[in-house]
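Re: that backbone. Tokens:
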């Protein structure tokens, strides 16, 4: 998956070889434009039958500059699960809706407003889901 911070490039050639029209294309080369800025997501379980499951999204800013106006989105498949109300945390602190996050039940879209992630820091979002 590519992001807007990736420079994506390919090269191609079109010509005739031995009387046959021939086109060749290289593999995609991806170069990150911003180093040391990353986001990962983990689940508290590998398989899920009962109870709630916790997701943890970690945004790391190991750069020398703040990452500003940060909005993190995550889609929870609404046919399978839904957000457990009151479980969204930022850096271990329970946050409120609509100020810090919103959740659209029909689409399953969770939107979390982090604001600014300071240079050389990490922001952690946690939330629970339950089966529908």
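Recovered sequence:
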């Amino acid at each position: 998956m590519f992001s807007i911070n990736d420079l994506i490039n390919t090269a191609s050639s079109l010509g005739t070889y031995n009387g046959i029209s021939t086109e060749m294309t290289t593999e995609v080369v991806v170069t990150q434009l911003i180093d040391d800025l990353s986001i990962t997501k983990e689940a508290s379980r590998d398989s899920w039958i009962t109870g709630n499951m916790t997701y943890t999204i970690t945004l790391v800013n190991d750069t020398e500059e703040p990452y500003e106006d940060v909005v993190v989105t995550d889609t929870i498949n609404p046919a399978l699960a839904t957000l457990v109300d009151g479980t969204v945390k930022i850096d271990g602190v329970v946050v409120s809706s609509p100020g810090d996050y919103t959740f659209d039940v029909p689409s399953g879209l969770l939107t979390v407003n982090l604001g600014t992630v300071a240079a050389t820091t990490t922001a952690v979002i946690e939330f629970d889901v339950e089966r529908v």
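The chain has one domain: 35-131. The longest strand covers residues 121-131.
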